[in-house]
């Protein structure tokens, strides 16, 4: 939605008026004007009563409307396939065969199973399943940088700042799902990340709190089983003993940190005792023919693990095959250019994505699982002298499938060079509003910052993408 589409008279506009940071402190009909004598007396009395400003903010936060969960939802789970480095729209889903050679690149388009839609010749399996996919060709990435923060948070205010505070404290969509939806099965984590480099490819909870950080799924394999020589009953007995000691300790120290620690410990006990987490992460439980079907590549193994986590009850999974893998500047860099770098990657990527979609559908999970395929931005229209493309934030392409997404469609369009949005401009906030709506989370709700200020889940004039409903 463009800035010109924002109208305070419509429902969407009213949501954002009530959800702005200014509205958090705007006087209501029963409030007293700030700065008046009565305001001074009331705030002074609050001070005498022992209520500091942070406490007043906390009270206001408790009364503020936080995000609500609807009983109506289309997605129980989300799998975000993160293409770290930024894939080239011109060499995947938005080819320009009529453009000059230096723009159109070395690949040719092929017709898909849906009349009128063409994609790259090196994505034949996606082409054959195009009725399952929606292609977005008009996603605005100008707020993004070489970082997962903006699009994993689906928030234009969540940016790379290079001051060890990237993201500005705004939470990722996975962390929001973990807080407001939680896992689909008790004892499972709500948010799991599958990435070799968590720091580079995964954005977490921000100021939402450590409890909603993603579980590092690459390191989790084998960590949730019962220790050798320890039975379930023995661990339960130890847990009961620990609780007795903790009750004694609480009489001396009733700090919130202690209560939080106890909650973490209990969740860890539940995960170990149930055995569900250990089973979900054990790919050896999968029949060999299914493992062979996905393939023994990083992308294949993580795709299979993502499907197992959905089955086990995890709500949000973000996976990345390798850090910077799609950053095809040219043959002088690690990942190479378009011909030597991107071309060899596309068959494995094509196979992995389509195998995941097919497997989810065969198991009856696709209708309740939203699959997103995207990176942090697109690539420049002009091929470099070393057969690469530079970073490009004005536009990028992405895929969506499952959870009621109507397949076989293209949303938006770029100009003849593939470098600027020509139709249906969309942004990170629109993506966030779509994901939250699919999960049954009110996209116009709020989360509470540490200081107590209600903060909108979705920033700016954004709305669920109607074509994906």
From TrEMBL:
Family matches, as SUPFAM superfamilies: Alkaline phosphatase-like
Biased composition (Polar residues): 1-10, 146-155
Protein name, as recorded: DUF1501 domain-containing protein
Record organism: Gimesia chilikensis
Domain of life assignment: Bacteria
Residue segments, region Disordered: 1-25, 146-170, 450-469
